[in-house]
Task: structure prediction
Amino acid sequence: MIKIAVVGANGKMGREVINLALNDKDLSLVCAVDKTDVGKEVCSNIKIEDNLDAALTMPDIDIVVDFTQPSVVFENAKKYLSKNIKAIIGTTGLTKEQILELEKTSNASNCGMVIAPNFSLGAVLMMKFSKEASKYFSNAEIIEYHHNQKKDAPSGTSIKTAQMMIESNSNFKLGNCDEKETISGARGAEFVEDNKGKIQIHAVRMPGFVASQEVIFGSDGQIFKIKHDTINRSCYMSGVKFAIEYLNKNNNFVYGLENIL
Result:
């Protein structure tokens, strides 16, 4: 049995991970941490606790699954590595510099960590297909849609998609005229990495959405779209389980689920 601690246990994704751990014969929930509903019983012998440092002293945690908040995830991730506890980070909002620091620490301590902007296998395939399509189109933009309680924008999935696309193409504005926004932000945010890319990302926040993303490619006489829609959060759990199984057998650092599929 792989012993799992869930941090951010009372959030929407945290509750899904708890259900996964309680209903999967290969997993065992040993700890649940959150700042809300402290003391609430999540199963017969596990209650939500709010002291992460104390929780991490438990001797039988194999892997932490973190779905918390952008404001705390970096410090949480450093704590897991400092205590030599493997971790899966599903919280988005980490900067490129923070990810590189965690990668360096993970590799130096031989303590595995998986950071994944998205655990839906369909969304991961959308990113892989977008990278492939980028070889053949020199104009592209990304529109991502989320519920209006999501705190970071643009989404980690859209940023990861843009990074993968840039690996195949260095300029997605071929032939564009010089633009002037009459209202600031009308063209979304221009994503550029290492002076390459120039992909416009548009973030929509609206009640009714869970998570959707559309990558639009264009060339003379045609438009090509790759889109993924999340209907409910249960679709993420197959990816979370896949990451758990991978990390249980490996000690390396991984950014992006596509790298271990």
Observations:
- The first strand starts at residue 2 and ends at 7.
- The chain has two domains: 2-115+233-259, 121-230.
- Helices lie at 12-23, 52-55, 73-82, 96-109, 121-133, 156-168, 237-249.
